[in-house]
Design goal:
Layout: E1 3-9, H1 16-26, E2 31-36, H2 43-53, E3 57-61, H3 68-81, E4 86-89, H4 101-108, E5 113-117, E6 124-126, H5 130-147, E7 159-162, H6 163-167, H7 180-191, E8 196-200, E9 202-204, H8 215-230, H9 253-262, E10 266-267
Parallel strand pairs: 1-2, 1-4, 2-3, 5-8, 6-9
Antiparallel strand pairs: 4-7, 5-7, 8-10
Helix pairs in contact: 5-8, 7-8
Length: 268
């Protein structure tokens, strides 16, 4: 398997110099793509310094702060154009631990999409204030209920994809750009019948840098859910899965509980 980790960055100077070595050390075959939105703090230059030292690191420089969703789409297109078999998306702030990558890669061998989940047995958040916990849990319940998604962590940003799942998406038709991008992509893959699994992770709060969340991003995510709910089909966005060996199936409550207790990752 040829895996790629995509890391969107904007002002991550305090984190990136520690994150890239950690990624390169945790998985010998892993390569890294930094998608930098012209960070004024020099994050892009730091990424380039790593790229000059090793071919396992590449950098995409964008002209400005263009948003999380478009950064991931740029990374996905790069991955498809360079023959990667598995693609990991993750944040640069160590809320997504590099140590979880081997488990994500093992899980994607028998799935189309693997979610590093805070909302399944064994998953948790650390050092979050009560208000943030409430907003996160409420947002997940909101999206899961309105869209009828059998996914515990609908807003998770730590994911691993098989190449085939990315090839099925018409990214030009994706409408979201902020954190709602995670919900929209989950919705599209679930509806198309792709097999989705959730691997429990521990999600600590960032210790350096600043969160990119804003009221505008929150509002986009809240309204997006209803747009997805009432849209008829999103024609042309994603091709339905045809290969039965990885076709998605839903588990009943008792079966799901048994599976979660007997395996290192949880499946819906």
């Amino acid at each position: 398997m040829k895996p790629l980790a995509i890391i969107p960055t904007y002002n991550e100077l305090e984190n990136l110099p520690r994150l890239i070595p950690a990624l390169l050390n945790i998985e010998p075959a892993l390569e890294v793509l930094v998608v930098d939105d012209a960070s004024p703090d020099g994050t892009g230059e730091i990424a380039e310094s790593f790229a000059r030292k090793t071919a396992r690191v590449q950098v995409l420089h964008r002209e400005g702060k263009l948003g999380l969703g478009t950064a991931y789409v740029a990374g996905f297109k790069y991955a498809l154009g360079h023959d990667y078999d598995a693609v990991i998306q993750m944040d640069a702030d160590f809320s997504h631990s590099p140590e979880d990558i081997p488990r994500l890669l093992r899980a994607v061998e028998s799935a189309d999409l693997v979610i590093g989940s805070r909302r399944v047995p064994g998953g948790q958040v650390e050092n979050w204030p009560p208000l943030r916990r409430f907003i996160s849990m409420g947002g997940n319940f909101y999206a899961r209920t309105i869209l009828n998604l059998p996914i515990g962590d609908c807003t998770a940003g730590y994911k691993c994809f098989r190449r085939e799942a990315l090839e099925a998406v018409d990214f030009a038709s994706v409408t979201s750009n902020g954190y709602g991008f995670q919900v929209e992509m989950n919705f599209l893959w679930h509806r198309a019948g792709f097999r989705i699994v959730e691997v429990p992770i521990v999600f600590p709060d960032r210790t350096a840098g600043h969160s990119k969340m804003s009221s505008r991003i929150f509002l986009e995510a809240a309204t997006l859910v209803w747009k997805l709910r009432w849209s008829e089909a999103h024609p042309g966005q994603i091709q339905r899965r045809s290969r039965r060996s990885f076709g998605r199936r839903s588990l009943g409550t008792s079966e799901s509980s048994l599976f979660a207790g007997s395996m290192p990752w949880h499946r819906h």
